[in-house]
Amino acid sequence: VVTYDSDEGRSRSGKCRRDDFSSNLMAARAGNRFSETWWKNIKLKLGRVCQADELTKEKEKVCCHEESATQPENRSCHIPWGSLELLKYPDQDLDTKINSEARLLASAAHNATVRRSIGRPAFQVPAGARLFCYAGKNSMTPHLNGEVFWQPWVPPKGTGSTPLRSGMIKPKDFDARFDCREVRSGDLRCRRGNWGNEKRVLRNFFGRIAYHLFFSQKRPEVGSEAEILGANWLLSDLYRRSLSSEPRRPP
Fold first, then answer.
1. What sign does the CA torsion over 202, 207, 209, 215 have?
2. Which of 48, 69, 93, 227 could form a disulfide with 122 if both were Cys (CB 3.0 to 4.6 A apart)?
3. What secondary structure letter does DSSP report for 169?
4. Which of helix, strand or coil describes residue 219?
């Protein structure tokens, strides 16, 4: 499995850390052990029968089928935010905490009903599963939430990337907090950003294999692909270079 680690502090790509890798973008061989275990755990949680009254947002437990519920069940499943994604780290299964609390209650009250609420813990990923993470200056998130892509941008000479209509974007659709420029190494050197007026360097910004753009955070409306390619966002420059047959560094 190949994915990325969003921690810019990590120095190099390699084996993914046990509890810190992204599932926003993954590539894998069919039938690999990691994906097989994750899918197995998702089905386990969605298919189980919960105790009566557990299909509610008040319970931080994945529940789609309640014990003794009227059939067919027409209510929506209750899935706590991120709970199925977290199953990629089986040790972070929400049921681990729920089970611990339920066992304490069952032990104190000798209560069989409470014991039945204890869920099957997630299956662990087999030891032979291999996960590779692009990290550090090769991570797919050069900037964590992607606001940097929306700054006003004038491409350096020699890159072969020129906006077609520099005045087409409304001022409100730029993120003016950023003031960055490209340097010869492919780094992005910023005098300021959404972090404040502190200078920062985003290493190898223009040399990543792929980019997570975080469109859930910001997505201005545009009329066409040509409008995006012709604009003077930093993002537009990345698109133009990616689609060019001869990408070049600034002189």
1. positive
2. 93
3. S
4. coil
